[in-house]
Write a structure and sequence with these properties.
Shape: globular
Number of domains: 1
Strand content: 15-25%
Helix content: 25-40%
Structural class: alpha+beta
Number of strands: 9
Radius of gyration: 21 Å
Largest sheet: 5 strands, mixed
Number of helices: 7
Length: 263
């Protein structure tokens, strides 16, 4: 045996000390949420939803870029998602409405992975209910991507609502299975995908080819009826001329989200 190696009792004592220090720092961080809320009220922003997806993504990316020995991406993301969501819940209304299609349990799991345990969560029977809840103050709708419901197409007629997150946020947790929607303006985080809808009758391959000729990399996410939902590499404004030239009569950007942190 290595005589210089710490004993099990010494390791446990160190873990106990770290736990106490972590709790002190977490408590201090959590208490700052009330100060943030007060500062926003003083600035006249107290009645606005505090959710800032681009800033959150930049924070998580910065943390994942720091040297780490044992904390992998999954642990790091889960811990800070909980901290961020707890802070949001202290700053004002914050609630989730989840439509999961044929697999509601998976949609709830994805919602909790992304938004933590702080906000109250309600499962709804129809996507329309989740979209309606997303239009209320502090409301977030989490909706599954299915081949039998083009709920995302309704966002073309709901310009106040935007997709701001693709779930899950780590590729290691599985393929993209749901999108999160809220009443906010999306902002670029520095590494994003844009979600774009078209009713073009051409095949997905033809649409992707037409976009590629205009310098836009695209891939089909889901097709339902006469509508197609594409993911575009990068952050695109709704009035981007390249998209205006794309195939389809009824088309539009419905939001953008940070790409998975492990890609």
């Amino acid at each position: 045996m290595d005589q210089d190696a710490p004993s099990l009792d010494e390791i446990r004592a160190r873990i106990d000390a770290i736990d106490a220090e972590m709790l002190r720092l977490v408590d201090e961080r959590a208490s700052l949420a009330t100060s943030v809320a007060a500062a926003k009220r003083a600035a006249g922003d107290g009645d606005k939803f505090a959710l800032r997806p681009a800033r959150e993504a930049q924070l998580v990316r910065r943390l994942l870029s720091l040297p780490r020995q044992g904390a992998g991406p999954a642990l790091t993301v889960r811990v800070w998602r909980e901290l961020i969501s707890d802070s949001l819940s202290k700053q004002g209304p914050f609630h989730l409405s989840v439509w999961g299609g044929a697999d509601p349990a998976r949609a709830v799991e994805l919602a909790r992975q992304r938004f933590g345990g702080a906000p109250p969560l309600r499962r709804v029977a129809k996507p329309e209910e989740a979209l309606a809840a997303a239009k209320t103050l502090g409301g977030v709708g989490v909706l599954a991507l299915t081949t039998d419901n083009a709920w995302w197409g309704r966002l073309l007629a709901e310009p106040s609502l935007s997709v701001f997150a693709a779930l899950p946020c780590l590729a290691a947790w599985g393929p993209m299975s749901a999108l999160a929607v809220a009443q906010l303006e999306t902002e670029p985080s520095g590494d994003d995908d844009t979600f774009w809808v078209t009713d073009a009758p051409e095949s997905a391959a033809k649409v992707e080819e037409a976009l590629a000729h205009d310098g836009v990399a695209a891939d089909l996410i889901v097709q339902t009826g006469g509508l197609k939902l594409f993911r575009l590499a990068g952050f695109f404004q709704r009035d981007d001329e390249r998209l205006a030239r794309a195939p389809g009569r009824l088309t539009g950007v419905i939001g953008a989200a940070a790409r998975p942190f492990d890609q």
